[in-house]
Amino acid sequence: MTDSKLHLIKTSAEVPLTIAVTAIDENGQVQDKYIACERPLTIYLNWQPIVTLMTLGARPEALALGYLKNQGFISDVNQLESVIIDWEVSSAAIITQENTDSVQAKLSEKTVTTGCGQGTVFGGFMDGVEDIRLPTPTLKQSTIYGLLKNISQYNDTYKNAGAVHGCGVCQQDQILSFVEDVGRHNAVDTLAGEMWLNGQGGGDKIFYTTGRLTSEMVIKVAKMGIPVLLSRSGVTQMGLELAQKLGITMIARAKGRHFLVYNGAQHIHFDATKESQD
Hints:
Blueprint: E1 7-11, E2 18-24, E3 30-36, E4 39-45, E5 48-55, H1 60-70, E6 80-86, E7 91-96, H2 103-107, E8 110-112, E9 120-122, E10 139-140, H3 141-151, H4 156-161, E11 165-171, E12 174-181, H5 184-198, E13 206-209, H6 215-223, E14 228-231, H7 237-246, E15 249-255, E16 258-263, E17 268-269, H8 274-277
Parallel strand pairs: 1-6, 4-7, 10-17, 13-14, 14-15
Antiparallel strand pairs: 2-3, 4-5, 6-7, 8-9, 11-12, 11-13, 15-16
Helix pairs in contact: 1-5, 5-6, 6-7
Organism: Shewanella mangrovi
InterPro entries: Cytidine_deaminase-like (IPR016193), FdhD (IPR003786)
Main location: cytoplasm
């Protein structure tokens, strides 16, 4: 934790992530199943409404903080005073001493995006991106395989109910923090908020996601200072162009022993290929 005087005030903060339901299968038989919960969370900054996110609700404090930071609404963790979560009114109120006079102007500049569970970025989202300088990673193929094996132990909500994305901050093949949400951007914002609060650097980290690697995902991971992005899903054209510009090693379609390196292959030591084992 940083030296900020932040006070987390939780009101009805714990909510179920899944609920039990019944469904009828193809044979007309009743099946007891679980489905993922989805609930609105309206984020307020100094009591001004910013956005309503649809979320699983796993770590709402970190989600709200990470969202505001990634969108450029706040930047100084030491100016934070409190985070108030109240599920009875579906709200997350962040109080900061930081100057927020420019919030209204940023809210007037919005772009509808491809993000699931979010879908909008505001003016300020791109601020500082061109100044980001990421370290050059060194990564072994065997480490990727180890990470993919270890990540299979997570995704609890997905295994139980489906309908969610998962993201993780990893170091080598170890998962430091993992979160699931109905939208992949909610999950990355949650992890960004945690890292920001805890003063964690990203230079020696790998970011894993089950979602596709769009421009938004690349920018958010770059803002976290993480130089390696690993996904079980695919890549978009703008996501790839930004990864190339920012120097992010981009690995996609990663599952089992298969993966595709779209950028940064020169930083990977292929120590587990068939040729290297002969």
